Structures are given as C-alpha cells and as structure tokens.
Amino acid sequence: MQSATLPAASGNGVVTREVVDRYHNLISSDQIAFDAVEQMNAALKKRKCYFGSRPLCTVLRPNFYTLDQWTYLKSSTETLLGAFRKVHAACITDSQLRAQLDLEPYEEELFSLEIGFEVPWTTSRLDSFFSLDDLSLKFVEYNAETPAGMAYDDAVADVFLELDLFKRFQAYYVTRTFAVRQGLYQSLAEAYRQWGGSNQPRIAIVDWSDVPTLNEHELCKMHFEAEGSPTVLADPRSLEYRNGALWAGDFQVDLVYKRVLCSELIARMGIDNPIVRALRDRAVCMSNAFSAKLMAKKASFSLLSDERNHRLFNHAEQRAVEAHIPWTRRVSERKTMFHGMTVELLPFIAEHKDNLVLKPNDEYGGKGVVIGWEASSEQWSDTLRQALVTPYVVQERVKVSYEDFPAVIDGQLNISPRLVDADPFIFFGRTTSGCMTRLSSSALLNVTAGGGSIVPTFIIQKR
To answer: Which of 123, 212, 238, 417 could join 52 in a cystine, given CB atoms 3.0 to 4.6 angstroms apart?
Structure first.
C-alpha cells in the first residue's frame, strides 16, 4: 500500500471544504464520472471488495482528514480506551458491577477462561460521529468482540490509489492511508507470543461458511500467508479437538482468529464445543478472547456514563467520558441523573423519544435499534415495553455529520450529502491506527443492515 510522509502539522492544516471542492471539481463531466465508476467497479471486483453480492463502495471519493483532525480523533480515542480498560478489569473482579451488563450464564462461565495474553481484545473498533466543523466527537458503540472491516479498509484504499481521478487529485495533495491488516497480523502474532507460542502461528479464521463477510476473511488469509503464517478458513462445525490439538481437517491450529460471534457459536454448538475444550486445556490461542464481549455489550456505555461508576476513572478519563460518550442507561425502573437533573428513567424515556435511541444490549448490524425521532409513538411504546423484559439500553441523540459525496445514480453524476461516521481501529485496547468510514442516507448507519457504503480514510496535506 502506498503512503507518504506528511510534513509536521501546523494550525488546522488544509481546510477540508477546500479539499472536497478541489476533488469534486476534478469530476468536470458525466463522462469522467462514468469512467471512474467503471474503473472502480472493476478494481473492487478484482480485490473481492463485496459484502455478499453488494459492492462495498458506491461513491467516487474517500473520506479526508487533515493531520490535526486525525491526531485529535486518535488521541481522544486512546484516552477513552483507558476508561474501557478500567471498566473491563473492574467487571472481571466485581460481580455486582458485572451484573450491570446483563450477562448470560454461559458468558459468565466462558469469561473466566484463562486467555494467556495481556488483554482480551487484540483488535477492536469504536464507532463514532466526528463533526469536522467543531471537532464534536461522540462514540456510540464499541465493537470489541469481532470487529469487521480491517481488510476491506486496506483493499478499498488500494482501489482509490489506482483511480485516474484520485491520481489527478494527488497532484495537489499529499495523501496517506493505513496498513490496517499489518496491524491486525502483528497484534495476533503478539498475542500468540505472549500466550507462549514460539513460531509463526498457524491460523484458522473461524466463522460460519455462509456469512457475507467471507471475502474479507479471504483478504485476511492472503495477508497472513504473505506474513509467513499458514492460514485456513474454517467453519466452527468443521473443527475437531483431538490428540491435544485443535484441527481443521488435517490442518493443526495454533491460533484461532475468532470472527464467529460467541452467542451464535454457543447457540448452534453448545458450550462443550471443540474450541472451548481446546481453550480449557490451553491447547490453542484464540483472539479475540471470549471475555472481550464484556465491552461489546451496549450496556458498557452505560457503565461508563452512569454516575454510579464515575469513581472508577481518573480526571482525564472522566473528562473523556463526558466529552465523547453520550448519556446511556440500561433501561430499568430507577432514578438517575440526566445532565445534572434527577429523573425517573421510564417516564423520561417515554416522554423524550425525539432525543433518544433504544438499542438491544446484545445485537449487531443495527438489529432491533429504534431511533426515537423516526419512530411512531406506538413503535416507541412497544419497544419500551419490550425493553423491560429483554435487556436494552437507551442512549441520547448525538450530533451527526453530513458531507457531500459524488456518485453515479440513474445514469447521472449526483453530488449529495451522506451521513458519515468515523470508526477507528484499535490494537491491544490502547492504540489507534486506521479508520473505517461508512456513509448512509439514513440514521441507521450500518452496512450489515443492508445499505450504505464503505470508503477509505486518507490523511491529506497540501503540496
């Protein structure tokens, strides 16, 4: 992957509006747009950049940050990660605190397994909305169990680097992207070394054989093998634990790169499955560990923002939580604080739907999320009743960011606003490198939910 060394940042760097206008002005005719789309689609197909049968990217420009903007996003994220680490550590030892996460009995059992390395999440992803006009940054979810998108992010960046349109843009700006798969592999290899492995691990990328992310697994496999680690894709149902080792056919597994969800693994195969048996006997290393799911629960945001838990954090972490974590509570019958005011939680939720979102505690891909300002009163009331019998969280509405992106729609160039998020990738729970950007025309911004587009993130500076 190409990269460039950027000069030291000064002031606010280049003005983002100027960058976007320059890029869009390069698309001076429909024919240029048609040619760029044709070139992009061919490159996306070549690099397996599809989610199921849908191309990952449907617009003609990446997302841009100045070096100062990226530095702010990175440093704010890394400060906040300290708060997540403290909450995770406290939950491991404090059953009353852990109860706020509404764990299943099997999760309690699995989370006690020895993992053998420093932190349970060697890779994770925090999803946020980052407004560049005022540097407003609000995180809304922590993908701590099986974060997706790292290989896709690299591959789509490579697609843009090949576009004639983007090469013309590079005549005006220095651009830099990230080698996210390299960070992923290095993190997995470090976890394996800490676990006690002495060689380059033989890796099984474990997920169901019919998931729409198989293309990304293939891209990871190619990179791991280029790094020197033999790698297979393995459906959990094909694994065997025999003779003191985990096997995928005749392939002995040293390291499980777990992409299957814990809840689905246990639901389909039970807790006494080959992976769990191998982990209990310390016959295999697995990342992310089962206990990574503690912070993947939506209620982890309630743990951070709830006034009952502020004692866990130092001053810098408290400031980061206040600045970047929206008010979030586990839905229950209780009194709590809302920006300095004591409220009865259930009546408050019922009366303020236009400023709130309801989320199931343990779902992904936008499943079950109800956005108050888009929901009918009946739908909101029904969901609130459901939240009293199934764990849900309520979260305050956050400021979102819209930016113009060019695309070819119905045979014509269309430059129109899209909702933009910022999802930095995290390694070993402490450092950030790379950032997935998703676009959507709706408030539910999730590619898994069936819409939207992924674009790569480039750091730019004027030549």
So the answer is: 212
3-class DSSP state of 419: strand
Specify the number of domains making up the chain.
1
Unique residue bearing structure tokens 């814990």: 262
At which residue do the structure tokens 């502020």 appear?
Answer: 310
* Local structure of 148: helix, strand or coil: coil
* pLDDT surpassing 70 at residue 208: yes
> What is the per-residue pLDDT across 338-397, written as a single tens digit (0 to 9) for each?
999 999 999 999 999 999 999 999 987 778 999 999 999 999 999 999 999 999 999 999
151-201 pLDDT, tens digit each: 999 999 999 999 999 999 999 999 999 999 999 999 999 999 999 999 999
Q: Which residues contact 346 (CB under 8 A, 6 or more apart)?
A: 331, 332, 333, 384, 388
- Find, among 62, 6, 65, 20, the residue nearest to 463 by Cα: 6
The residue to which tokens 């045979």 are assigned? 411
- Give me 435's structure tokens: 């950032």
- The Cβ of residue 261 has, within 10 Å, a number of other Cβ atoms equal to 18
Q: How far apart are CA 341 and CA 339, in angstroms?
A: 6
Identify whether 413 is part of a domain: yes
SS (H, E, C) 422-448: EEEEEECCCEEEEEEEEEECCCCCCCC
Cis omega (within 30 of 0) on the bond before 63? Answer: no
Contact 194, 94 (CB under 8 A): no
- Element of type H or E holding 396: strand 392-396
The verdict on residue 8 lying in a domain is no
Q: Evaluate whether 82 touches 319 at the Cβ level (below 8 Å).
A: no
How far apart are alpha carbons 71 and 267 in whole angstroms? 41
In terms of DSSP H, where are the helices of 27-179?
30-46, 67-93, 95-98, 105-110, 150-162, 164-169
Helix, strand, or coil here: 142? strand
2, part of any domain: no
Give yes or no for a contact between 217 and 155, defined as CB atoms under 8 angstroms apart: no
Question: d(Cα 198, Cα 372) in Å, to the nearest integer?
Answer: 52
Per the structure, the complete domain to which residue 67 belongs is given by 16-295+401-462
Q: Decide if 4 is inside a domain.
A: no
Is 80 exceeded by the pLDDT of residue 5?
no
Helix (H, G, I), strand (E, B) or coil at 55: strand
Q: How far apart are CA 266 and CA 375, in angstroms?
A: 33
